[in-house]
Amino acid sequence: MTDNLHLLPPLGLNRTTPSWADPVVQDAIETPPINKEVRAYLSECFFLLPHRVIYCPEHQCVVGMRGYMNVPDPYAEYPMLAIYFAKYRLRKYPFDILRNDITWPEPYVVLNTIMRRLRTHRFLKGNADAASIPDDIRKVIAPNLDIPSGMEGELLEVPYSERKLGANRVMKVFEGQDARLEMERFFDELLGSSHSELYPDSSVIRVVSDYPLRSQADVIVFSEYLRKLWYIEKILVLMNMVPDSVRDRPDLEDPSIVWDLLEDLQRQPVYEPSQNERMTQVAALLKLWPDALEEFQQQRKDCRTFIYSKIRAWLPKKNKVKIYRGTSVLEDGSVKVSLNFTEYSYIKSAYISFRPVSSREAPHHPEKVLATFECRHVTREGSESHEEDAGDAGSSE
């Protein structure tokens, strides 16, 4: 591993100086590229999210796409630990921002977490230098940081494999015997009847309204997650349509282009058929690079977690409903989440969907997020004919 460390780009280059103006800088930049396996190993262990987080030594802070945090003095000598903790926060709390009222752990806790990831990564399996590689990396990121005796097991969180996982996400919703009456009353109070839209079919309730957000910044953040998840879901479907001959294309050598293409797609205000070519290119890259696919699927999970949190915040907290079947996408740019009202046999099916909405004058700046709640339930007149169907509401794909 020590042989590979010299392949990392030198730190501290004056990036304000054009590379063509300084032959010394030009020589430094033209070092051989880092080995692909080593790059994947380091990226997966350190860069928890593709969002950029940088350390600013002049102000002793970390700055990201969503806020900044002042870095405590114990972290000043270990900027990689500060960056890792900032990205860890963004990943664990996708609906939060970087802010200064966050309590920082001791630096050795962050180092322990990184070292655990380094030592358990699949890159080390069968590697002759497996015992020394993590320690070599530690000398680079935290050369003088001591871990107190007995604190080697202190981590930021319990490893994923050791958590007790539930089969379903459970949240609370309203109670009542007449589904139509209760839901109309709830949404009328929460959203305002002027925004409601009801089907003439007495067995279907459909409510359309602006999702209640506190500020325009919340609208932008929510819209970004929705657009990102929408494209991720579409691209993962396209993967099944990519031919195996894509492996022979030399223009798909670098998997890092996945994130550039995804960002370009997200910037588009609405989906257009012309974007299919880019989405197919991303799908081809993911088929070639399993590590990129793994991170891509993790980002889908992060986006889903954020959207599920919005659903929990929206629905009343009484009785139970489960989010199941994951998420799906509609051609109008909506992200749809199916709900299962397990305690109510009269509710046959329900879903919530979200869609960012922009004005024609500013198509790249979402004005609001449109939420649609639809529920099909058993009418009292037709309860006998629908009871068998209602029992299927608990099924899961």
UniProtKB/TrEMBL annotation:
Entries under InterPro entries matching the protein: Rep_fungi (IPR008897)
A Pfam entry, by short name: Rep_4
Keywords: Plasmid
Biological process according to GO: plasmid partitioning
Stated name of the protein: B protein
Organism per entry: Torulaspora delbrueckii (Yeast)
